Amino acid sequence: MSTGAVSCIACGMFETLDTLSLSFAREAFDATSGTVALWLNGFMIAYLIFFSIQLITKGQGSPYEVGSKLALFVVAGLFLNTGALWMEWIVFPARDSVTGVAVKIAALSGEVSASGFPELIDAVEKEVFVVLKIARIAINGAGIVGQFSASFGSLFLIIPFLFAWFLFVGFLLEAIFKFMAITAIGPFVVGALLFNATKGFARDSMRIFFSGITGILFMAVAMGFTIAVIKEYVGVLPNPPTYEEVERFFWSGDYFAMVLIGCLSVLFHIIARQMATSVAGVLDSQIASQALLGAGGFAAAKALSGAKAAGRKGGEGLRAGARAGADLARRKIGWGGPNP
Length: 340
What we know:
The chain is mainly alpha-helical. The chain is 84% helix and 0% strand. It has 9 helices and no strands. The longest helix is centred in the last third of the chain and has 81 residues, at 253-333. The termini are far apart. The model is unreliable at 282-314 and 335-340 (pLDDT under 50).
């Protein structure tokens, strides 16, 4: 949730998308919660009837077991009857806490008035655009002779940082989509938690939700490191720098170090997303890998067995064909047997 006034290139768009995603997710939650609640009520009544029959006829069943199951149904009904519980107890605390931590990581210096997505982007954008300011001074101050060198050097410097910034914003949008998607199907997630056969669906859904949280944190670490390096190498220049100072900076060791860090920042953001996915779904990844290896081994064994069988049949066919050909040749040249 955004509470502070910010002004950056992506902030307005991002705040609009953030607000729309929350309202859409809440409407989708409310639209399906009634149907899921009706299903759960039917299951609860059927469960009570089944338990009563088992208790009366066979003396089976535990009052504690049925009490705990009914308590779960009641809690699920509370979440389904009002979407405010889901939003206030799960979505908002997760979003606000993780963005608050991410702002502190990414904004290593500077004042950030609130812990929201727009403020996070604003804090990052202010630091990354320092590089653009240096490039603009270089291009504007260069004469006709040095225009090509300044333009090439500026593009060489700003492209990796712009790309890293685009990745940062894009991955935050991905996290918002994950929050929105899991909230939209929240009633089904709540209902799936009550039954052993469907707990896997609920677990995987919450894992996706958790991957949005970890994604924001890892993105903040990657961008925070980028900001720290920008401060380190741009700190040798006055603020604002003159053209002569920028000209001396270009093609120096600090300049090439910044270019290298910009390229590494792109790599760090890509790795950060992979790390966030791995942290959220490491068990699924291991199970999938083991299943894939097992299936591959089984298929390879079947293919090898089939190849051996085909080889045996093919060998027998070749031997029979060779014998028939030899007999025909002997008959044609008068060796053994009459000539047809």
